[in-house]
Design brief:
The chain is an alpha/beta fold and 255 residues long. Helices cover 20% and strands 34% of the residues.
Length: 255
């Protein structure tokens, strides 16, 4: 975790799906330190109108650059769509995924919606990963080509059946688990999905890591806004997603 802020030059900023934007910035210090699963805290406007930064997961990092993808959901992220030459970024923050390619030979990576984006950097670091992504509809399907470049296999599901498998990505994951073709699961997405994947991991006795999405204030563990319940006894029963996470072992958290 780095508590340093950087003024990062924007190299590209484009809309890749309705209200979904792909950004690459020049950030050599962040790129050198970034780990899969960590996030950035991005300043979205002036301090009076928009005092709080917005947490955005790192999509990939390397060659002195950092890439992230965000969805416009409110005034904060809407501010990012304005014409800017640079962004004020704090990061990288948090603890990312535990990667052990020697112990786990058959990783399964599953993401839902915008939760798929932080999994790209992870997949680039894994060996022989099978990737399962779920989107509401075809026009929201993104990064398929990027994942195909680094994964062993990529399967996509859409809720309405307009692209790929008609259904949920977790159904595709279960087929792989039933066949004994996964020995660890990495997951990021909405909380109902995380809970379903956590339950499935326990059912098939497979280790699982989940990246939690919570509203954040400071992003550095000071304000306690993003606390989540864990199975740890005593004072540390509640942990801060921004500082202790956002990635946890699934059997550690209460979903």
């Amino acid at each position: 975790m780095s508590l340093d802020t950087y003024i990062c030059k924007i190299l590209s900023h484009k809309e890749i799906a309705p209200n979904v934007f792909d950004v690459t910035v020049k950030a050599p210090e962040i790129a050198a330190a970034a780990q899969p699963g960590q996030f950035l805290h991005v300043k979205c406007g002036d301090e009076i109108a928009m005092p709080l930064r917005r947490p955005i997961s790192i999509c990939s990092a390397g060659s002195g650059c950092v890439r992230f993808i965000y969805q416009v959901k409110g005034k904060g992220t809407e501010g990012l769509t304005k014409e800017n030459d640079s962004l004020d970024i704090l990061g990288p923050l948090g603890h990312g995924f535990v990667i052990d390619n020697e112990t786990y030979k058959k990783p399964a990576v599953i993401g839902g919606g915008i939760g798929a984006y932080p999994l790209l950097y992870l997949t680039q670091k894994l060996k022989n990963a099978k990737v399962f992504m779920g989107f509401r509809t075809k026009e929201l399907v993104t990064l398929e080509t990027d994942f195909n470049m680094c994964a062993k296999e990529v399967k996509i599901a859409t809720d309405d059946g307009s692209y790929g498998y008609h259904g949920f990505s977790i159904e595709l994951l279960e087929e792989t688990l039933k066949a004994g073709e996964a020995d660890i699961i990495y997951c990021c997405g909405p909380k109902p999905m995380l809970k379903a994947v956590k339950d499935m991991a326990e059912k098939y006795n497979v280790k699982c890591q989940v990246s939690l999405e919570e509203r954040m204030g400071c992003g550095i563990g000071a304000c306690l806004t993003c606390s989540c319940e864990t199975k740890t006894e005593g004072t540390w029963k509640y942990k801060r997603v921004c500082k202790n996470g956002p990635v946890f072992w699934s059997d550690e958290v209460v979903l």
